[in-house]
Amino acid sequence: MITTFVQVFGGLAIFIFGMKLMSDGLHQVAGERMRSILRMFSANPLVAVASGAAVTCVIQSSSASTVMVIGFVNAGLLSLVQAMGLIFGANIGTTITAQLVAFDISWIIMPSIILGLLLSFVKQQKIANWSETIMGLGFLFLGMEIMSGELKLLAKLESFKSAFLTFQCAPVDGMIPLGALLGTIFIGVLATMIVQSSSACSGIVIALGASGLLDIYTAVALILGSNIGTTITAQLAAITANRVAKQAALAHTLFNLLGVVIISVSFLIPWGNEPAFFALIKKLSFNSDLPRQIANAHTVFNVFTTLVLLPFIPLLAAICEKFIPVSSGKIRYQYLEPHLLDSPPIALTQTTYALRRMLQKAWKMIDCALNIYNRNDEKNQALAKQLEKREADIDERQQKITEYLSQLMSKKLTRQEAAQIPLLLHCVNDVERIGDHTEIINDIIDQLHKDDLRFSIQAEKEFDMLHDKLAEVAHLSSELLTRCTPELLQKSLKLHDEIYSMLNDFETEHVARINRGACRPQVGILYLELLAEIRKISRHLFNLNERAEMFYENFQTGQTEKK
After folding, report:
1. DSSP secondary structure of 320-386
2. What is the pLDDT of residues 77-94, one digit of tens each?
3. Is the pTM here over 0.85, yes or no?
4. C-alpha dist (Å) from residue 6 to 1, 10, 14, 162, 188
5. From its phi and psi, is residue 286 left (phi > 0), alpha (psi between -120 and 50) or beta?
6. Which of 30, 295, 325, 518 could form a disulfide with 98 if both were Cys (CB 3.0 to 4.6 A apart)?
7. Distance CA 95, CA 72 (A)
8. CB–CB of 15/144 below 8 Å?
């Protein structure tokens, strides 16, 4: 008896391992396409549902795809309504696993494991990813076969079989007993919350059905419970997210709960001598074996409830917003969303966005410090009081981006994705150094004010010209982090020549003024120090421009190789 139980749980372990291996492999193969699929989400609810189903079919887990959606919402990439369409589709996509394991194709086990192992020795990452998928498929069916075989042995024991009759949901006088239905649904909820995968629970239910321990009625009740239990993953993911992401997680739970209620109500509608839903499943299955009926019931349940609830997405969104209101008018998005690390292309894009925000804030500090000399209006004075706090914010942003990229490095990356990380780290350091120059510029101008010193009229004109030109470079750097076009790169080269030419000319002219006695040496030294600071800031900005070009070259190369 003990040996048999060990074999059952061993088969379950192999089954779940195979599912994870296959899911990870497929995720890696399709990872680069996630960005393009994401762009489709906002089209309309039907497209969102189709996209959600497609993504979930690829990564073989509605929990994983829903967690990814929570990450998208938390990062500001999706609205609540768009996320809901995707979640609806994820429930359809997850049924592919049940359909897959319902096939009796044990002949594929060893060829898949052997082929997957052979492909794993190939050094090319793209082929290696497929090796995990193929090998995972073999382990999935191997675990299913072991589990089903041992459960059939246990089914012959009356004591074990009677335990499964505790919540027997077979109809009595054409009606399913309410107590047994609710009890079985609860067991499905609990089992899925423990396993953290509705796909795995569906596989277990199919194995139990194939062994004769479950009938179609009890199996469907367990499937209904697993659809509710799987929402716990999204709820856990949303704990640290913003309120819109929490609304999306609530929408997932509400949708699955309503789906279970709708299908349960259909159990009250008679069709012949049994509930209408089960009569429909048997007709659609053409009297196939029980595993196929369970898989079809799972698919019909999710497709039907999605079609019924799809028109009510705006209403469900309003209910979620009512239950979890956004207390303040501004939603705080987390661009460096940890759940997006499993989709490296999107995580890299989010890092670039966070870097751009960091650069804009660093430039605002530099601009404020430069304005203190002769453009120091009330607004700039108020901003100047926050410079110390803003510099601490820049340092914190550098730390967060660096930590995020460090976490991303531990994921499975393509060669192009791995090459982009050091580029971004260098960019982050450049932006942080730009922020550091604020204090130096501030000290120089404070020294001028303290000693009641002014630049010459010509030096002031030069200073304003350099300030304006530096602002132009900073804005261009920010734009290059969003889109890198040949026109913008050409403009960067032109600005590079212009600002360095201005710096060289103004420095030469200022030294000449000092030599002629047209400028006091104390003022002259401070002016030259300011020119040196502008030169250093320019160098950091042009470093960003050059690396932005390399970053997008790597990304486009990676995309081309995947096609």
Report:
1. HHHHS--SSSS----SS-GGGGGSHHHHHHHHHHHHHHHHHHHHHHHHHHHHTTT---HHHHHHHTT
2. 788 888 888 888 888 888
3. no
4. 9, 6, 12, 20, 22
5. left
6. 295
7. 23
8. yes
